[in-house]
Amino acid sequence: MAITLKAIRQESYPASYTRGNTLYTNQQVITCRSCEWEGEGVSTVKAEVLGKDEELYRVELTVDEANDKITDYSCECEDSLIHEGMCSHCVAAALHYWRESILQEQKQKDILGQAPGELPAVSGARVSSPEITSLIYRYSMREKARYFQPSVAGKVELEPVLKKYSQTWRLTFRIGMDYKYALKNIGDFLEAVENGEKITYGKKLSFIHERSAFTPQAREFISFLEMAYKDREELRTETYYYSRERYKRNPQELNLTEREAAEFFLLMRGKRCRFSDSTESGGELSVIEGNPPLVIEITARDDGCCMVLPRLEVLSSDESLFVRMGEAVYCCSEDFARDMKEVCRYGNWRECAHLEIAVKDMNAFCSTIYPMLREHAEVKLHGDIGAYMPEEVQIRIYLDLEREKLTCRLESEYGDKSFNMLGTFSVEDMYRDIARESRAVYTARAYFDNTGDKKVLTLPVNQDDRVYQLLATGMDQLRQTGEVFVSENLKKLSVRRAPKVTVGITLSGDLLELTLSSEKLPFEELEALLQSYRQRKKYYRLKDGDFFRLEDNSVSALAEIMEGLSLASRDLEAGSCRIPRFRAFYLDQVFREAKEGIEIQRSQSFKSMIRNMKSADDSDFEVPDHLKGTLRNYQKAGYRWLCTLEAMGFGGILADDMGLGKTIQMIAFLCARYEKEGDAAKPSLIVCPASLVYNWEGELDRFAPQLRKKVLVGDREERKEIYEHYSEFQILITSYDILKRDAEDYRSLNFYCEVLDEAQYIKNHMTQSAKAAKSVRAGVKFALTGTPIENRLSELWSIFDYLMPGILGKYSGFQKEYEIPIVHNSDKIAARRLQKMIKPFVMRRLKKDVLKELPDKIEHVVYSRLQGEQERVYAANVQKLLSQLEQPAGARSQGEKFQVLAQLTRLRQICCDPGLVYEDYKGESAKVDTCMELVDNAIEGGHKVLIFSQFTTMLDILKKHLKKKRIPYHILTGSTKKEDRAELVKAFNKDEVPVFLISLKAGGTGLNLTAASIVIHFDPWWNIAAQNQATDRTHRIGQEEKVTVFKLIAKNTVEEKILKLQEDKKLLSDQIISEHGVSVAAMSSEEIAGLLKEET
């Protein structure tokens, strides 16, 4: 019985009912499903409703149809949290469920002739198609199976029982868990599985036939049966045999074809199966992966011999061979199946098979079949058949060079008899060793062509590739099949090994001088030789006809040097050339890989530079005394690496994983420089995204407060004044956007160091941001990024073009030599060359690489500064609260005290996004920009992220930004049902969704989210214990990665003061924070004003 409209109206206000009816009639109920609780007359309704704001809201209703009541309801929308009664989305879902229930009852009673007007009507309602009604039923049963039969999930077994009668294999099944029932109708069972029907087998087994209810093995059997029945349906109308004899004989049995029996045994490999046949009582059949232990008896006679095969039975599919012997079925190897399948076919299950071999066939039998029998079976020989065994063959292969072709003749000798192996066999030749002769002919034909002349094979001498293969590898392969004779003419054609090459390398100022010498290298053919190497050829054919092997180390090293350094052959013909010194490390790697055929002569200065770079971790660069922080060992290594690069005049990319402290390593480097040089050192420039400018300022205040720094903000005139006095500062901090706008001002400035944070901002070398960053004049340049390559190799080129212009050449050349070959052609040689080029200048450590050095949690405070409209809104609300606080504390009522607390909450919401307070706010939010920056970086680094906020409406705002970026997410708030919470957590820990939005109170306890390694607290809470409890949702037992926690704080706001209160443990426990949060009574007006006054 369906609920009535009265029940829906009783649980909603008129306005909500009207809006809900509008949503329903506009068909904005996207999905709706229900699940009835057995024996209780209560249904759970779950729906998705598209709201007027085009957001999709999840609704859940509990309907007591027997008592005509809606006993519970929930929705994700904000109205449901604020107002009593059902919201419009719940009303729409209830109306949809009511109408569907009416229509379902009508269908069941078969009152199809009733006029639509006789039914209670809702404007615009439609009757569902029968297909949709069926789908709703089946999916509802799935939901019901998920929630109401957990006791059988994955536990129901199908036990096969195999029978063999005459030549037919018959398969039946028993079903159950601890106790098994006979499966009486396989067809009905498969239909129940397809439709999700509930079937009762007996007192101990009654369940909905969802696939998830069955064990993995049972699901394999179901798929096997479905395929078998599908084959029968296709043949049913065509073949009387299938439609009458095999398909309809016994619904409890499935008569297997030979192919199906083989496929069944494939499923049963390594297992045992209940089995019976017409001659034996019931037992078990073992399915063994391996070859059967065949014993074949051969008895010699005067007129031939007799071969006896054991009792066996053969089953085969397209790819597999099974042999039944005794109480076992053997799944045979490919070799056994290839050689013995035809022999085993002559076996018989009832009795041993006797096969006679006449004396005239004994030679052929002994040369062809007998060797295979001995390889795969135990052969018991009675008598002597040695007289029929083939003589040992002598194979001779004659190779010659005649005019414009190479020739090959093959002969076999048996005592005093000689045969042309390219001719045809006669019956009298059956004693010959066909296997060895065939192998020799097959090998020869891999290098030579057949001709009309059946006595010789030929190969045109002008087919360089094939001639080289013959000389380089074919000769040896032919020698493995017989004795090879080479004519004097052919001996003149040879494959030369590459001559020894001597390479010298000397460091001369900012350049490297490279010298090359070799006595036998044909420099006049060098360009053509290297062109063959570039085409990945294994040889080069010299003008005299000989072949020059290009696979030798000296040639590959020489070609690698020339290609890697973009040198032309004329550069080496002169004997020496000069190249930039940043190529030193690339050359060193090439030299070390070329172990033979090339002699390297390195100057002492070159060796010293390489040694210093390789031992950067053990260098003498001490961590500066004035650094207010402790570097971990891997951070010290990064610091020394930066110092080593700078000392050599190189730049580099610090590409550590997110959360490993790239910022503090760079600050330590800058601190050391200014500690050593003092005021004599030029200023340094730090460029970062606008959302991180004040975070850099905060980190410098924290770790190097002694450095004179300036953030480039304000209007054009204010910034211009800073540029005019830039030498008064040691560190300037700016954003990519401001750098781009002020690019002209930087032309006259000189910096000691330029640092690009989140350097992927210049990944497109055509943008103004990239051009502006590269135009800055600085003695050394560094890039910080966790993702030096996001999508294309051109991004890496752009960053290196900023660091050291020319190291990867011009972009057109880089694209031709690296990007296209690597990306489009998967060129491993080009990929290895690029890796050699950049390896010394990139330092990247992942969290898993430094696990032992990391604490369990790495916490970072990330600052953002309010600007523009957001800053003005915040300032106005601060003034309003200060005015309230000017009233004497004693004169304030309890209600006014709560107003103060409410105003404090408004300030905190404005720090997050003014849109939480003002519906018509259209401006930006500094914290949202910072948060999305962190999310992007985390996802690019392969991390999953939890984002906590105590404001559920803030999560709604973040949802919109994630949707705009097409980033999938899960969300959990106080309105999320318990069962849905569990499903969401399970999904997030297993699926590819990278972001989980969680309200602090809803997600603070009871969740295990170990898939995430990044936690973002969007807003600070008064109660630090609750905030830490939320972090522990991912930092707990089962977490395999280190957890990085980011706390987003709006600079110079009440949030920063909350952070300071959290750090003051005594103040937290004694004055401000109680167990449940803020104690208004414990805060004086002066204390509240202290949170605000510095910001006015």
Automatic annotation (TrEMBL):
InterPro entries from the entry?
Helicase_ATP-bd (IPR014001), Helicase_C-like (IPR001650), Helicase_SWF/SNF/SWI_bac (IPR013663), P-loop_NTPase (IPR027417), SNF2-like_sf (IPR038718), SNF2/RAD54-like_C (IPR049730), SNF2_N (IPR000330), Znf_SWIM (IPR007527)
Q: Which residue windows are transmembrane per the record?
A: none
Q: Please name the CDD domains in this protein's record.
A: DEXQc_arch_SWI2_SNF2, SF2_C_SNF
Which part of the chain is the Helicase ATP-binding domain? Answer: 643-806
**Domain of life, source organism:** Bacteria
Domain (Helicase C-terminal): residue spans on this chain: 927-1084
Q: Which GO terms describe its molecular function?
A: ATP binding; helicase activity; hydrolase activity; zinc ion binding
Positions of the SWIM-type domain: 57-98
Q: Which keywords annotate this record?
A: ATP-binding, Helicase, Hydrolase, Metal-binding, Nucleotide-binding, Zinc, Zinc-finger
- Which Pfam families does the record cross-reference, listed alphabetically? Helicase_C, SNF2-rel_dom, SNF2_assoc
What name goes with this protein? Answer: Superfamily II DNA or RNA helicase, SNF2 family
